[in-house]
Amino acid sequence: MKDYLLSELHDLKRRRRERYLIAFLCLTISFLIYLSLRIFHLGHALPFSSSIIAFALININVILLLLLLFFTVRNVVKLLFERKKGIMGAKLRTKLVMAFVTLSLLPTIILFFVSVQFISSSIDYWFNLQIERSLNSSLEVGQDHYNGITDEILSFGNVVSRVITYEGFLIPAKKEALLRFTDGKRKEFGLASLKIFSKELEMLSVSKDHRIDLTTFKNPAKGVLEQAISKGTDGQYIQSSPHGDLVGGIVPIFSRTASKAVVGVLVLTRFVPGSFVNRLHAISKGLQEYRQLKMLKTPIKASHMITLSIVTLLIIFTSVWFGFYISKEVTVPIKELAEATNRIASGDYDFFIDLETKDEMGLLVNSFNRMTLDLKTGKNRLELANQELVAGNLELEQRRLYMEIVLANVAAGVVSADARGRILTINKSAERMLNIKAKRIIGKNYRGILSHENRKIADVFIRDDGLLRKGYMNKQIRMSVGNRQLTLLVSLNVLQDDRGGYLGLVAVLEDLTEIEKAQRMAAWQGKRPFSIWTGSR
Hints:
single chain; Beta-Lactamase; alpha+beta
């Protein structure tokens, strides 16, 4: 910890010295720029002023470049040593610094040689060419904007046309629906107006943006609309007014039955404000005037370019130093976060990052601290819930074992099925009674297990209205099991959830075959029969 504090104190002193050095360089360069401009303005009195300025600026650029290389190399070497030692955060800091150094060093070298070239070659030609290209590009941007609007409204028109064709909005019975559809699509696509014409150029629907004054604009020429209808192709037009331009697109509407038959036409428009149009006119006018003034440049432009080269070097130099500073500001919180992450990964949820910053990194640190607190709270809740879950599972397991023991030892047969008729459980008594094995029928539908005659008995039994109405039923049935005829007392109970939904059935089977035989034997011998079962409930 002591070594860490000493290292931070050393870095603080170093950064303070660098700030003083940068401030000194800024003042020196500002003075040299002012001196260069004064010498340039006195150029008529000083015959060698141009040579002096060139020599001074070249030396200034060389000095700045050497200083930049010095600071860059020194910091890069330091970062490489830190990375070699495996200091946390050194890799990320190295990447950030190398990115800043690369982005700053390369333009500085290029700008240095370009500045020398400016002094020794025809700077006026390069300067004029760039301006002219910029103005031409501005005009091209304006034209591209118009082309983009045209392509966009034509794309919207094709979408609307396909929907109208598919929905059959052009039939008279759907006139109201067409009006609503037109208004909705106009608002959805941000159009100035959306008009629909029939094949006979009768206006079927129109929707306008009342916030835009469209009174000075007219519908497109009749010939343009007829061409779109006859050829089935898209069209476009532009109308101008003092308030702005109206860019329009024309899209044919095809028949639903005949794909190539045109039954109508869409006219979509978008308004271009007058401010944008005026700017384009101003750029066009400026380009014309600039071309006329090519030969009227003065030597002051040369001084501006020289000043720009010096200021550019100063900005790049400052940006490099600022890159080292930013890398320090970024890597320290990341280092703290990495250490905190390792602590949390090892199970220490009581760790807290104490870092006071008001930028996004501070927000990240605060979020991390809140996340740590939430993880701790969640862990405690999870442990408590896990304990409760273990206790609940243990209780459920005990109940399940108890029910299995009861079902295994009860004399009556017990069979349960779900809502789809699939067998869920069957006890040993039911296995012996029905001469089946549980492992062969669990999960299967009862209809696939029983014979045809027994399946008919079961279907009639289950679909009885009394069972569905009361939810339970007792009934004596006879069924064949192998070569035996069994007399069974079946008690059916419907299983329902809390909302009354049907979940399945539970059947309790009692074998009355032997009792029935005994009753018949007693009746045959003339004795009074006895009965255990008193009938259905």
